[in-house]
Amino acid sequence: MNGSMPTYLGMPAFPAAAKAAVADSQLRRNLTHATGTIRAKRAGAVAELDDWERLRQAAKAIKDHTLANLDAYLLRLEENVIKGGGQVHWAQDAAQANAIVAGLVRAAPADRVVKVKSMVTQEIGLNDALESGGIVATETDLAELIVQLGHDLPSHILVPAIHKNRSEIREIFRREMPDAPAGLTDDPAELAAAARRHLRHEFLHASVGISGANFAIADTGSLVVVESEGNGRMCVTLPRTLISVVGVEKVLPSWRDLEVFLALLPRSSTAERMNPYTSIWSGVTPGDGPEQFHLVLVDNGRTASLADQTGRQALRCIRCSACLNVCPVYERAGGHAYGSPYPGPIGAIISPQLRGLSSPVDSSLPFASTLCGACYEVCPVAINIPEALVHLRAKVKHNFSERTVFHLSGQVLESPRRLAAAQRLASLSRRFVGRSGRIRRLPPPLRGWTETRDAPAPPAESFRAWWQRTRESGTRERGTR
Ligand code: SF4
Q: How far apart are CA 30 and CA 331, in angstroms?
């Protein structure tokens, strides 16, 4: 069974959404600058390690082994969380997970929560579900706070407000943050200080914290959150009740496995040798941190995608975002066009697997790629994203015109005579060639191709015709002499 994940409200299929994004020159400037900077820094951080490829293969092997034995490791995790004084809840889908969390918050009792950035809570639409139950959730990650105050949606896994520049952020703070200083400028240090002051009050008054987890260690029942700002540390230590909402694929067998991922994740994501804050907790400890700990394990389509031998590699993902930063499609279209909290190359393979391929947006996502392979090269857990994309494309039911085009192409390519005729026909399109030597507009049904790009002019003579004219006729002439 596929899971439930709300498509971003009103979001059309990828081609239409991307078209609007590509036309936004400010967005493109913001994205090009941000992804270019992170890309260069990551390459430097990775180049420092001689054994990067070995680490990468080790991570892949650990994840594959864990996924192949997921049931056993999840039960071991549950057993050890309970031993440590925590409680474990199992959620099959988003609705169940949201209901469990809302029930726990009400039982705390509380009507406000602080949250550390968590992809799975975005996936299940937790904030909206809490709000409809009268519970206010405050995001405490700086970029998430910007997105929340701006009534916006995240557009990057690691930097959810990557589409905003600092003057846009200043305007959001001035408009939406009641305690923002009167003369707030767009200096990054001033903006961070304003957010820190605003959040401090929330941290000190919240009795419930909600987190995700980067990893869950089965052997000890420990949860691990890595982050750069310290907000995660506050969320998982200050409130009386801590609720961690975690996808089932986050489990790792043991501490030794964690070592590999703590080497790979910071370099791949923030280009740091080590992330500034690593918070690890195992159950509850009297007099130290939360008095109650709940772990909500979320399936939401994950076990269904485990059944797919090619597609399941997406469950290895550690959400580092390296694939987004190298993707030429993401850099131009931005994250919102993917219609899901998971943008970029990983989003193009994970959302259709978690949600199924039936909606226009999900069936369009596997085509949101040039298949250049840059995402596979940088992925620290060696997810072959192009392979998964092609695999998903084959599953999409093509519409009639696509089926017809592919059928006709097949007919032409399997017959040398038909191919030669098609090439002669193609050379007729030279009449559409402009002064630039390129075709800027083709008639229907090929118009779509030239709407956003031009096309090279086909040669006046195909290679096959040239070969026949110059070589084969020469050979014949020599043979008759
Ligand atoms: S697919 Fe790989 S590169 Fe992309 S976010 Fe996941 S782990 Fe990182």
A: 9
pLDDT at 461: 82
pLDDT of residue 433 exceeding 80: no
Q: Which amino acid is at 410?
A: G
Atom 3 (ligand 1): residue with closest C-alpha?
379
Binned at pLDDT 50, 70 and 90, residue 464 comes out as: confident
Q: How far is the CA of 265 from the centre of ligand 1 (A)?
A: 10
Query: For the segment 144-162, what is each residue's pLDDT rounded down to a tens digit?
Result: 999 999 999 888 998 888 8
Q: Rounded to the nearest 5 degrees, what angle is found at the Cα of 160, between the Cα atoms of 16 and 339?
A: 25
Contact between 120 and 245 (Cβ < 8 Å): yes
Tell which atom from ligand 1 comes closest to the C-alpha of 268: 8
Cα 23 to ligand 1 centre (Å):
27
Report the pLDDT value the prediction gives residue 121, as an integer from 0 to 100: 97
320 Cβ inside 6 Å of ligand 1: yes
Closest-CA residue, ligand 1 atom 6, reads 317
Least confident of 155-169, 255-269, 309-323: 155-169
The answer to whether residue 435 scores a pLDDT higher than 80 is no
* pLDDT of residue 282 exceeding 80: yes
Q: Specify whether the CB–CB gap between 42 and 321 falls below 8 A.
A: no
- CB distance 380 to ligand 1 below 6 Å: yes
Note the pLDDT of residue 76: 98
User: Nearest residue CA, atom 7 of ligand 1?
Assistant: 317
156 lines ligand 1 (CB under 6 A): no
> How many angstroms separate the Cα of 75 from the Cα of each of 186, 207, 392, 412, 423?
49, 29, 31, 56, 62
pLDDT of residue 189: 95
Domains and CATH numbers, the chain: 14-144+207-303 (3.40.50.10420), 416-480 (no CATH)
Distance CA 350, CA 342 (A): 8
Q: Is the CB of 381 under 6 A from ligand 1?
A: yes
Strands 112-115 and 438-439: unpaired
Does the Cβ of 323 fall within 6 Å of ligand 1?
A: yes
Higher-pLDDT residue of 331 and 455 is 331
Residue whose C-alpha is closest to residue 350's, from 367, 360, 362:
362
85 Cα–ligand 1 center, Å: 33
